[in-house]
Every structure is written in C-alpha cells, then in structure tokens.
C-alpha cells in the first residue's frame, strides 16, 4: 500500500467519488409561520440529535469492515445533506442505513422529509465548508420531483449498483427496492431506500412497523390539509408496494 493510499484510508480526501443524499424538510416555511419560535427550535433540536447519532454511530463498532469508514452530514435552512467518505459498497451500506434511520426518526417526530441519493465526484472540505459536485445537483433535482415521503435513487447510483454487482460478490443492490415511484410527472419505476424498516427496533415483531407507520400517518394528517396530503397518500401506497415486493422476494 502506498503512503497516499494509506492516508486516504485514514482521512477524508477532499475530492473523491462518493454518494450524496439530499433531504428536504417538507412544509418548513409554513411550519415556521404557523408555530412559535420555541416549538420550531425544539423540532430542529430533535433533528439535530438524530444527526449526531448518525455522525457517531460507527464509533462503537470494532468490525474491521467498518474501520476508517464514516459519513458527514451538514444542514442549512430546510435541507440536510449526507456525504459518504468514498464510493465503496460498505460506504453505500452505511449511508443507506443512516438515511433510513434519519428519515424514520424525523417522521416519527412529525418532520416529513423527502430526498434522493446520487453518485459521482464530490468535493467536501469540512474546515472551509466547501461542498460541490454534480451529484449534489443530481440529488437535489431528483428530490424536487419526488412526490412522497422517502428517498429515491438517481440513475448514477443504479449504474454503480449494476457495475458493482458484476464485479464483486455483494448484496448491496438488494437493500434497495424498485417499484412504481410517485414523482410529480407520474408513477415511474425507480429504486427506493426502504426507510420503513427503521421503524422497527431490534427484536421487535414485524407487526410493529405497521403499527408505528399508522401512528405517524395519523400524526401527519393533523398538521396537513389540502394538496400536501397527496404526499401522505403516496407514502401509504409506497409503504404497501414495498411490503408486497419484499414479501415476494423472500
């Protein structure tokens, strides 16, 4: 191993191929207008706590496959961005698990979000807070099209998954579910992150997912009226479609 490769394994390289998740908090401007400053602050604090868990959850792992791995999250206004350290299958797995957890936690706290994940060369300079690259734009533009509470894969990630499945023995592709996905232009086949699985805690029965999902949908309906409820209807449809697809794949 060269000195450069060894250094790359320990530290983040500013410019590298990686995965990017762009998340948008739905109805944030209206939420701020309709609630007290303190209530908004408390909501953002809950989201920050979830972010901190995501940023540090690998610290307790001794498994070598997670050694020197990690991800980085940043936020501004009503958006969150997650960056993987590189574009290895393990980094994608970490990002998928982290995104699922973050979305489930937010939804359980009545903070609806939608987003997209893209792949490619991205510069991440934590010290100077410089973040740029085509995948950020790709993830942002795709999440603008998403018409349910969830995260959709950009075709750049599909290309990566097809390539990696041919070159290496990995089941990372199975972590995503391809279904008719609600976009603003209609229902279109796309791979999705199955964040619903994160509603179930360790050792809980699978039925708990249905119960928790029904509770969060009920809560969201108390803060949503009119056309925005289409997101709720679409999320229910995706939940049912993912469950059906997952059952058929067993």
Task: Summarize the structure in words.
The chain is of the alpha+beta class and 250 residues long. It has helices at residues 3-10, 28-34, 37-56, 89-108, 134-145, 155-167, 207-221, 229-248; strands at residues 15-25, 71-76, 79-84, 113-125, 130-132, 151-153, 176-183, 186-193. Strands 1, 2, 3, 4, 5 and 6 form a six-stranded mixed sheet that branches.
Q: Count helical runs.
A: 8
What is the 3D form?
Answer: globular
Order of helices and strands: HEHHEEHEEHEHEEHH
Cα end-to-end separation? 41 Å
The number of E-state strands comes to: 8
**Rg over C-alpha atoms, rounded to the nearest angstrom:** 18 Å
Beta-strand proportion = 15-25%
Helicity, as a percent range: 40-55%
Uncertain segments are 1-9
Q: Major beta sheet, specifics? A: 6 strands, mixed
Query: Averaged pLDDT, please?
Result: 84
Structural class: alpha+beta
Could you give the topology of this structure?
Elements: H1 3-10, E1 15-25, H2 28-34, H3 37-56, E2 71-76, E3 79-84, H4 89-108, E4 113-125, E5 130-132, H5 134-145, E6 151-153, H6 155-167, E7 176-183, E8 186-193, H7 207-221, H8 229-248
Parallel strand pairs: 4-6
Antiparallel strand pairs: 1-3, 1-4, 2-3, 4-5, 7-8
Helix pairs in contact: 3-4
Task: Looking at this protein, list some descriptive labels.
250 residues; alpha+beta; six-stranded mixed beta sheet; two-stranded antiparallel ribbon; 8 helices; 8 strands; globular; disordered N terminus
In a nutshell, what does this entry contain?
With 250 residues, the protein is an alpha+beta fold. Helix content is 46%, strand content 23%. The chain is globular and about 45 Å long.
